[in-house]
Amino acid sequence: MVTKRHNWTKEEIIVIYNKPLMDLLYEAASIHRQFHDPNVVQVSTLLSIKTGGCPEDCGYCPQAARYHTDIQGNDLMSVQQVKAQALRAKAGGSSRVCMGAAWRNVKDGPEFDQVLEMVRTINKLDMEVCCTLGMLTENQAKRLAEAGLYAYNHNLDTSEEYYKEVISTRGFEDRLETIENVRKTNVTVCSGGIIGMGESIEDRAGMLVALASLNPQPESVPINALVAVEGTPMEDEKPVEIWEMIRMVATTRIVMPETQVRLSAGRTQMSREGQAMCFFAGANSIFAGDKLLTTPNPDVNEDMKMFEMLGLIPQKPFTKISQPTTVEAEDSQYIPLGEKPKWTRPAHQIERNLKAAGKKI
């Protein structure tokens, strides 16, 4: 029986990452099944509520004001606009809405008050609400929690050693401080990173050490493949090989067995087969919709087809860990059978299983 650890070393993680692929996949999939239902995947929607004009110099980001990209900036969206997008996301099968604003840090005032109202509004739709707004103070984290925020995303991006090669306007410790401020509330933490920025395997392992050392560990860890955008310092980086992504997902699953591993940016470059291997390796969340803030993402209809093909079931909101179900367990992490989800075939499979077990529907 695998147990959660907070004392991983970089050397141990590198050994795991470099295992023969079949051995790595077997180990990761076995651990995944111990803590999660392998056929349940959360669908989230990422919404850019304020685009462009960020004063930071993150080398991967097209929203930095100092870079010349074709990103069209926009002011903060209205509450009604966000509600309309959230309803659309819910109709498409999403159980979580993640709102991102291109800010270095949150500033108290009318705009933050407006974000708080967005959180309250989406929360009333029975959806998980996540925000990524930059650095937070302890008081701001508390106000977001009081508004009903479910998760706060603040990625470490890479290892502490490589961090300065990616960003100079904010320190690695600043990111850890924001995570610590969030931890002083009941809001869950979503924190991961990006591979393909020119970092080494040692840096990827170093990032996982930093995340796994947090106590508690993040409830969600997004694994992003760099989407190189023209006009940014990383525009010439080569696309991440699918095998690198599979290895990173599998290693993350082994190192943080209870965490929800989010297959995030870069899915447009992955085949269905490649994504299926990532799910097998332990990924149990995707972002749906045509964009991830500003970069391309697979069409939601394509994701629906993939879910149906693989027999995957979208996770219901407010399910922290998708524990494997038994005949005696309630089907609480599934879309209610009385509803008609987009992924109808898996829901019918569950209905047949429940009937066979003698449960009332």
The Cα radius of gyration reads: 20 Å
The low-pLDDT segments are 322-361
Instruction: Tell me roughly what share of residues is in helical segments.
Output: 25-40%
Major β-sheet annotation: 10 strands, parallel
Give the N-terminus to C-terminus distance in angstroms: 34 Å
Number of helices: 12
| Overall pLDDT level | 82
* Number of separate strands: 12
Secondary structure topology:
Layout: H1 10-17, H2 21-35, E1 40-50, H3 79-91, E2 96-101, H4 110-123, E3 128-132, H5 138-147, E4 151-153, H6 160-166, H7 172-183, E5 188-190, E6 193-195, H8 201-213, E7 220-225, H9 242-255, E8 260-263, H10 272-281, E9 283-288, E10 291-292, E11 295-296, H11 300-310, E12 313-314, H12 344-356
Parallel strand pairs: 1-2, 1-9, 1-12, 2-3, 3-4, 4-5, 6-7, 7-8, 8-9
Antiparallel strand pairs: 10-11
Helix pairs in contact: 1-8, 2-9, 3-4, 5-7, 9-10
